[in-house]
Design the sequence.
C-alpha cells in the first residue's frame, strides 16, 4: 500500500475495499428492518440476500447454507456443537478433534465439554500428523457407545500460511462417520475454493480478512440435511440458525468484498511473487551481516498461501523487531491478532517443535489486496536496517566473549 506506511498485516485485518465502503454507505443511507414486510424492509432484505449470494459464490457453496454472524469466532462457536441433527434425526457428535495449530477460536472448543476435546498433533513441518490422526480415529471408534467424531482443521494457518490437506482429512472423517469443520478464513480470496472439493460439512469465513468490514462473518453449512442448535436464541433470523437483527451495512460490505476477492483468487500469482521476492532478498542481507545461517522461514518446504511469510532471525526478539519495523513505517505482526496485546511464544511454532528462542522471535508478513512492490521494497530497506543493528550487536558480543 503506497503512502507514508506499508501495511503488511493483512492476516490480522485487511484494508477496507472501496467497493465494500460504497456498499456500506448505500446500506447506511437506507432504513428499515430486514425482517419487515414493507418496502423499506424488503429493500434491506434484498441487500442481505445479494450479499449472501456473493459470499456463497466465493467458495462455491449453496446460498441457503450461508449463515451470517458477527465474527468467525461466533461462527466457530455456532458450528462446534455436539448437538447435531441429520435428516431430522438427532445424531450428536462425540469427541471434538482439533489440530493443535488451530486458531484460538477453534482451540477453545465451542460448546463441547473440555473433557471431550482431543488434540491432533502436527509434524515439525506444520502439516497434520496423519498417522496420529488415524490412530485417534481408530481409538475413538473402538470406545464404548462411540458417537460420530467432530474434526476441526484450518485450511490455511493464520501464522505460517501452511495449507493442510483438508480433502484427505475429510475423506478419513467421512469413513469414520464424522463431521468436519474447515476454517477457511485465511484461505478465502487467496486461492480458489470450492466447499464441495474440500469435503467439509462446515466452513468459516470472515469479511475483514478479504477487505470487507470488521463485524461480519459467515458459517457455511455445506449440507442442507445437517441442522445445528442455535447458540444465540431469540428471533427467527437466518432461518432460525442465528437470532439477532442483521447488520445490513456490514453484510453488504462483506458481499462486495467477496465479489472482488473471488476474482483475485483465480490468479494469486502476483501476491505470491511479492512474498517470494521478500524471502529471496532476505538471504543475502543476513549473509552480509554474518547471519547467513541464522534466519529461518517457517513452512517454506510445504505448500503455503502466497501472501504469508513467517520468519525469524536468531538473536532478534519479536517485540524488538515489531517496534523497529513500526518506527520504519512498516506494519507487521508476531502471529495471530487474537493473541495480541502482548508478544509471546507462538502455539503454532511450539506445536512444530521450533526452539523457544527462535519461536519467540517470529515475525509475520502478510500481504493483501492493496499490497504493492513498493511495500516490499520498503520492507527490505527496513529489514536491512534491523539486521545491520543485530549483526553489529552479535559482533560485539562475540568480541567481548573472546
Sequence:
Amino acid at each position: 500500500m503506497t503512502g507514508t506506511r506499508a501495511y503488511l498485516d493483512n492476516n490480522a485485518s485487511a484494508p477496507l475495499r472501496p467497493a465494500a465502503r460504497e456498499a456500506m454507505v448505500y446500506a447506511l443511507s437506507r432504513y428499515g428492518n430486514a425482517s419487515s414486510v414493507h418496502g423499506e424492509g424488503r429493500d434491506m432484505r434484498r441487500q442481505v440476500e445479494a450479499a449472501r449470494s456473493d459470499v456463497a459464490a466465493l467458495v462455491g457453496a449453496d446460498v441457503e447454507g450461508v449463515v451470517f454472524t458477527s465474527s468467525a469466532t461466533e461462527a466457530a462457536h455456532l458450528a462446534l456443537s455436539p448437538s447435531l441433527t441429520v435428516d431430522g434425526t438427532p445424531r450428536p457428535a462425540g469427541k471434538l478433534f482439533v489440530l493443535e495449530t488451530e486458531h484460538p477460536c477453534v482451540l477453545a472448543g465451542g460448546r463441547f465439554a473440555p473433557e471431550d476435546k482431543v488434540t491432533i498433533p502436527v509434524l515439525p513441518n506444520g502439516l497434520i500428523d496423519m498417522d496420529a490422526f488415524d490412530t485417534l480415529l481408530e481409538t475413538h471408534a473402538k470406545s464404548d457407545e462411540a458417537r460420530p467424531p467432530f474434526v476441526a482443521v484450518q485450511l490455511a494457518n493464520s501464522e505460517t500460511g501452511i495449507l493442510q490437506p483438508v480433502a484427505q482429512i475429510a475423506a478419513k472423517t467421512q469413513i469414520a462417520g464424522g463431521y468436519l469443520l474447515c476454517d477457511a478464513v485465511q484461505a478465502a480470496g487467496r486461492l480458489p475454493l470450492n466447499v464441495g472439493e474440500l469435503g467439509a460439512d462446515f466452513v468459516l469465513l470472515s469479511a475483514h480478512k478479504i477487505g470487507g468490514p470488521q463485524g461480519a462473518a459467515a458459517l457455511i453449512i455445506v449440507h442442507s440435511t445437517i441442522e445445528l442448535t442455535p447458540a444465540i436464541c431469540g428471533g427467527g433470523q437466518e432461518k432460525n440458525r442465528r437470532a439477532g437483527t442483521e447488520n445490513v451495512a456490514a453484510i453488504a460490505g462483506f458481499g462486495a468484498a467477496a465479489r472482488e476477492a473471488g476474482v483475485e483468487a483465480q490468479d494469486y500469482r502476483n501476491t505470491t511473487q511479492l512474498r517470494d521476492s521478500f524471502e529471496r532478498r532476505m538471504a543475502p542481507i543476513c549473509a552480509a551481516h554474518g547471519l547467513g545461517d541464522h534466519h529461518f522461514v517457517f513452512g517454506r518446504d510445504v505448500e503455503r498461501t502466497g501472501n504469508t511469510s513467517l520468519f525469524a532471525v536468531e538473536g532478534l526478539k519479536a517485540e524488538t523487531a515489531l517496534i523497529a519495523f513500526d518506527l520504519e513505517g512498516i506494519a507487521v505482526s508476531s502471529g495471530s491478532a487474537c493473541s495480541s496485546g502482548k508478544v509471546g511464544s507462538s502455539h503454532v511454532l511450539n506445536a512444530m517443535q521450533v526452539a523457544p528462542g527462535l519461536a519467540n522471535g517470529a515475525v509475520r508478513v502478510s500481504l493483501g489486496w492493496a499490497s504493492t512492490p513498493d511495500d516490499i521494497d520498503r520492507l527490505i530497506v527496513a529489514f536491512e536496517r534491523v539486521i545491520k543493528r543485530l549483526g553489529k550487536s552479535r559482533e560485539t558480543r562475540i568480541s567481548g566473549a573472546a
About this structure: The two ends are 46 Å apart (CA to CA). The first strand starts at residue 6 and ends at 7. The domain at 18-265 is CATH 3.40.640.10 (Aspartate Aminotransferase; domain 2). Residues 58 and 262 are 5 Å apart (CA to CA).
